[in-house]
Structure formats: C-alpha cells, structure tokens
Amino acid sequence: VQLVESGGGLVQPGGSLTLSCAASGFTFGDYIMSWYRQGSGKERELVASISSGTYNTHYSNSVKGRFTISRDNAKNTAYLQMTSLKPEDTAIYFCKAVHTYTTSREYWGQGTQVIVSS
Asked: CA 22, CA 73: separation in Å to the nearest integer?
C-alpha cells in the first residue's frame, strides 16, 4: 500500500498550487480520500475530504472557497487544488485514505511541503 503526494513547493501569497496523491496497493474507489496539513508547531488538521461513491466533499472553514478536492478513480489519484494561497497555508500536506465501511483500514502518505511566502 502506498500513497505518494506531489506538487508542493514555494509559492507567493495569492498564488496557486495543485497537490496530487497517487494511490496503489488497495481498491482506491472504496476509500474516502482526505487532505490534512500540519504547520510548524501545530497539530495536524483536516483540510478537505471527498467520499468514495457520491463524491461528497467537506472543507475546513479556513480553506472553504479557496481549495477544491477532487478524485479520479480511473487514475487512483486524489487532488487538492489550492488558490488564493496565504502565508498561513504554509504546512506539510498529507493525504489519507480511509475505507468507507471499515474505518480501521486507513493509510497515510509521507507528506509534501507547501510554503507560501514572498
């Protein structure tokens, strides 16, 4: 089982980035996909999630209207499109997969760094 995030980097305030999470080793379509982030000295927090069947989405208040989560089951990949980035969005971003019916089956990626700075 593997979740591999990519797409992080340095971006100026107001800029955009799209993160990808490539999954392998499990049935991607059966899992809820989520993005979390952890800033320096902060706890890990949920940013956004997308369900497996109906593609229902949920966003934290801090990113609502700026970030968009999506998934492509044919490519076993989840995405996080981030726009209007702010310095406070600086963090390591992790993707997480949780089985829709057996929540003990969960997997984490290794994270990708996003730095928002001028």
From this structure: 10
The rounded distance, in Å, linking the Cα atoms of 40 and 116 is 13
Tens digits of residue pLDDT in 27-67: 999 999 999 999 999 999 999 999 998 899 999 999 999 99
Q: What is the DSSP string of 20-55?
A: EEEEESS-GGGEEEEEEEE-TTS--EEEEEE-SSS-
Task: Provide the 3-class DSSP secondary structure of residue 43.
Answer: coil
Distances (CA, A) of 58 to 28, 95, 116, 118: 19, 14, 23, 29
Token couple for 70: 């999506």
How does strand 112-116 pair with strand 9-11?
A: parallel
Q: What angle do CA 51, 53, 104 make, to 5 degrees?
A: 55
88: its two tokens: 């406070």
Distance in angstroms (rounded) separating the CA atoms of residues 84 and 118: 13
For residues 85-94, average pLDDT: 98
Three-state SS across 92-106? EEEEEEEECCCCCCE
